[in-house]
Amino acid sequence: MSESDEVWKVNRERDGKRETFESNFPKKGPIGEALAPVAGFGVSLRNFFRPTVTEQYPRVKTPPMPRYHGRHQLNRHPDGLEKCIGCELCAWACPADAIYVEADSNTPDAQFSPGERYGRVYQINYLRCIFCGLCIEACPTRALTMTNEYELAGPTREGLIYEKQDLLAPLGKNMLAAPHPMVPGTTDGDYYRGDVTEPVEAQIDWVREHRPDDATLPDNREQEREASRG
Amino acid sequence: MTATADKSAAQAVETVTLTIDGTEVTVPKGTLIIRAAEQVGIEIPRFCDHPALKPAGACRQCLVDVASPGPDGNLRAFPKPQASCTMTVTPGMVVNTQHTSEEADRAQKGVMELLLINHPLDCPVCDKGGECPLQNQAMSHGRPESRFVDVKRVFEKPLALSSEILLDRERCVLCQRCTRYSKEIAGDAFIDLQNRGAMQQIGTFDEDVLDFDGYRPVGAAAEDEAGRAFSSYYSGNTVQICPVGALTSAAYRFRSRPFDLVSSPAISEHDSSGSAIRIDHRRGAILRRLAEHDPVVNEDWITDKDRFAFAWQNLGDRLTRPLVRKDGELVETSWPEALAAAAAGIRAATAAPDEDEEAPGAGVLVGGRVTLEDAYAFQKFARVVLGTNDVDARARSASDEEQAFLGSQVAGTGLGVTFGELEKAPAVVLVGFEAEDEGGVVFLRLRKSLGRQKIVTVAPYLTRGAQKLDATLVATVPGREASALADLPADVRETLAQPGAVIVLGERAAEAPGTFTSALDLASSTGARLAWIPRRAGERGAVEAGALPGLLPGGRAVSLKPARAAVAKAWGVEALPSAPGRDTAGILAAAAEGRIGALVVGGVSASDLSGDVSAALDAAGFVVSLEVRRSHIAEAADVVLPVAPPSEKPGTFVNWEGRLRSFVTAIRTDAMSDHRVLDLLAREWGVELGTGTVEAVNAELASLGAAGKGERPAAPKAKAPRPSRAVKGTAVLATWHQLVDEGALQEGEPYLAGTGRVAVARLSRATADALGVAGEATISTAAGSIDLPVVITDMADGVVWVPVKSPGSWVARDLRVTAGATVSVKGAA
Ligand code: SF4
Ligand code: SF4
Ligand code: SF4
Ligand code: FES
């Protein structure tokens, strides 16, 4: 008798001692037993009379729940400066290595965010992102949040690597497009505390001087509004 | 621990036994508690403590509980926790760190809280974030919550100490590592602790910044000629040792995070010290370089050039594909086509025009920054394929005397004087060598023995670097170094007779005839040792590899038959060319006269040569250039073969000590080393050069070994020139490279360039008066002139000093002369 036979014998003996399987489901009566093969149709029948859950996407786009993790957005301060400081903490936190950031120095001629540093390159690769939201938790400035936008499919790899301009939040009603100087006399701390609520005249003047055609200047906005009215 | 340590010396060390956190440890007497704790793996938090700096006790982060036996033998505890970085161990001491003593833990937490009170906590925008001792230790030894609710003290940020070094005073924890380093190591006391209390800060004594209300600073900080107050060649080290993000460099500012970076060990390509560095790169681009700890070479420090000058290799003119000249234009082509074109061109250009006329030869010019393997390939290519000894890797002034010296004393002699021996030498005489400008970290080693070493410099004036070494000047007119050495004062001779004394010869010794001869005489009469410290990284390797016209690998003389035969046998060729070769200047002159038909040039900057490079390139029938970038010579070449910069290839630099400093590829690209390209090129002639890989070259070099008896050239015997009579309106030119200047390897780095010294012309008062020069001077030769502001300096009379290649002062290109030449000096209109 070989060793393996020995093992099998032990196993067989053990199996013999084991109790046979007993289901916990209540035992069916004889009628139940007879109808059992077609019982599944009962489920289907029942659902004929329930409200349907099928979504008519893409013809009808149902908004997801408010906290749905959709496409990211890079937010702005109320005066239009970018919130992102290019700190890469989001990239650091990302378990999928989906974010790529390169920072740079703000200069008096090109101030994109309050303080010294801004995100010059910002990419999220939606082929990698798993929408976990860890990046959002990592962001120290609340620059990065998630929108409810879920239509993130496309035919090319490049197309699914979103660049900074694809992720930046649209400019709000009064916001002045960056770059422009900070509100005079403020520090980045004032921005984070929410003390800056809108662009001030000095900033508007600066943009007027450097980019007179900027569409976000109040003068140009007015014209546009008139044009659309007329 | 160190297996090589001398046993008897190790036994002689007095030891002390103490207990740290219940672990008994025995350490040499005089050890600091913090070091003793490290030995048993107990980590004590610290900021100001740095093994290379003297203890300061500035930050108080390393507090521990200490008790030591009193006179009665009973253990007595110190009433308060003590700084473990300043207290040395005593026998029977009992130390309890934060791990075992609540008192110590509380003290450390308290210090951390105090340090963080005024700290801006702006880690997200701080370059140190992610690799910051303050961040890490605040996590491990700090309180989780801050109790400080008031307004923090703010400073303007950042403050530019120089164009490269930025200071964010808010983040500073006043550990004084930077100021101690500047004073103790670099000797550039440009920054110091200033002001008091909450306003205490590091700075340059700039009154506008300090805003002293009511009182004035005691004295202004030292300034350089430009009036800049932090012009140190070693300032980048402060960025690396600052334990917080207070000191940052403009070049790396906001470039990346530690977790983005791939770190590769490397060897600096900037000077002959072969400093160990770390290259940090992201996505194939170098973002910064740091000093690596290498106790035998650069210790913890590197020069700013080593640290910041790396942009050159990725500038817009980087070559990636071979170029061939077609219809007068260089066009990109494939490797096979370029190699074939190069070989065909060289063949045609070196063919005899007529049966009875002599065929023009070929010459090989090599730059001083190629690796040992590359230099070996260049010379083998010249001798085996081109059949000439016209190969020279000295893209600078060179002499036959120097070659005889290198062949007889340097090549194939292995490790000579080392950094450690230089540091311990009782006396050092510097000849044709400016330690700070031309030696890089050699300067720091010499400065380490300040007060314990007598340094004598044979130079036209006492530079600031020499002053920092407390050197004695033997004022010498350039070109007359040989006589200066022969007539050294008796007391200097005496100090040189002490065992271990060293005579250092720089690359400029070749510019003064007789210097090597005289230095050898001096060495043999005093018993001092000789060290040749060239400037460029590849020089010593080129000498070892035999990339000199009269030298074969290992110090064998071309002129000696047994030497040629030995190498020919090893290479498997019938014979080596025996005609004496020309040096760089000779090759250029011969090419200009049409006696050299084809030139192969690798890594040479035309603007470094005082010879007429354009004329040579124009006259040569065919020019092949091996280059990283589209240099001046590449632009004029007929075929350009792209090669890899040091970070993209493996190789070996031989530093001035003779130490092999091998490095591996830091960044993988498809760029090839010079030796591989030459190996491919040689195949066009059907020759197996055998230099395809670093391993192959090294195996061949190893099997060749050093020159045997009767294979070395004779020691040089050159006479010192007689002093020529001064002509009115002229002066003798003294000139050398500043460490930070406009060299090709420093291009593309404006922040570093900003820390360079401004170019000035130096004259003694008497000379300036005799020449009638004040304010600005025009220095001219037949070839051209340069205008520079004059600085009156205490120096040898009849001499004018200008930097070799600093902004506005390109001596080789504009004056076409080297040191020792007579130039005319006029006051500028
Ligand atoms: S949601 Fe998660 S996976 Fe997507 S980018 Fe953010 S951290 Fe990365
Ligand atoms: S999005 Fe937030 S976390 Fe990411 S780089 Fe910008 S500021 Fe930093
Ligand atoms: S700048 Fe850095 S190294 Fe200098 S004292 Fe401040 S924290 Fe220390
Ligand atoms: S490390 Fe000991 S006082 Fe700073």
Low-confidence stretches of chain B: 1-7, 212-227
The fraction of residues in strands of chain A falls at 5-15%
General form of chain A:
elongated
Distance linking N and C termini of chain B? 67 Å
Say how many strands of chain A there are.
5
Mean pLDDT of chain A: 91
Cofactors, ions and other ligands in the entry: iron/sulfur cluster, FE2/S2 (inorganic) cluster
Number of H- or I-type helical stretches of chain A: 9
Overall mean pLDDT of chain B = 91
What structural category arises from helix and sheet content of chain A? alpha+beta
Beta-strand percent range of chain B: 15-25%
Number of strands of chain B: 38
- Which residues of chain A sit in consecutive blocks of at least 5 with pLDDT less than 50? none
Estimate the helix proportion of chain B, in percent. 25-40%
What structural class do helix, strand and pairing data of chain B support? alpha/beta
Q: Strand-and-helix sequence of chain A, N→C?
A: HHHEHEEHEEHHHH
Major β-sheet annotation of chain A: 3 strands, antiparallel
Protein architecture, described:
- The complex is a heterodimer of chains A (230) and B (829).
- By secondary structure, chain A is of the alpha+beta class.
- Chain A contains nine helices and five strands.
- Chain A has helices at residues 3-17, 30-35, 39-48, 89-93, 134-138, 164-167, 188-192, 201-210, 218-229; strands spanning 72-74, 99-105, 117-125, 144-146, 161-162.
- Chain A has a three-stranded antiparallel β-sheet. Chain A has a two-stranded antiparallel sheet with strand order 1-4.
- The radius of gyration of chain A is 31 Å and the shape is elongated.
- Chain B has 829 residues and is of the alpha/beta class.
- Chain B has a seven-stranded mixed β-sheet, with helices on both faces.
- In chain B, strand 36 and strand 37 form a beta hairpin.
- Chain B starts with 6 loop residues before the first helix and ends with a strand.
- Chain A binds chain B through residues 85-89, 91-92, 102-105, 115-117, 140-141, 187, and chain B through 124-125, 129-130, 154, 157-158, 253-257, 259-260.
